[in-house]
């Protein structure tokens, strides 16, 4: 088997494993963060986040961790507003094989 074919197979397997682990990480995060408050989000995703006010009482937080971008809405006292949080996939050049 030529070297080019071996490299192609390795790249395809690495790409499939990358997306498999990404999907498993998304599932784990979504289960872990279902009824979480702001402290649990900061514990799992890290304290580094951006936020902006949606209205007087609600802030929209954005975490950027590895290849995951997660957005959720919280009140000023740290309770999550009952809107579904969104996962966004942000593929960076350092993550692409």
β content, as a range? 15-25%
Helical/strand content category: alpha+beta
Give me the count of strands.
Answer: 4
Q: Which stretches are poorly predicted, pLDDT < 50 over at least 5 residues?
A: 93-97
In one word, what is the shape? elongated
Radius of gyration, in angstroms, nearest whole number = 18 Å
Number of domains: 1
Integer average pLDDT: 79
Order of helices and strands: HHEEEE
What does this structure look like?
A hairpin with a 2-residue loop joins β2 and β3. The protein has helices at residues 3-32, 38-45, and strands spanning 50-53, 58-65, 68-75, 86-89. The chain has one domain (3-89). A 4-stranded antiparallel beta sheet has the order 1-2-3-4, with no helix packed on it. By secondary structure, the chain is α+β, with helices and mostly antiparallel strands.
List keywords for this structure.
about 100 residues, alpha+beta, 2 helices, about 40% helix, about 25% strand, elongated
In short:
With 97 residues, the protein is of the alpha+beta class.
Please render the helix and strand layout as text.
Layout: H1 3-32, H2 38-45, E1 50-53, E2 58-65, E3 68-75, E4 86-89
Antiparallel strand pairs: 1-2, 2-3, 3-4
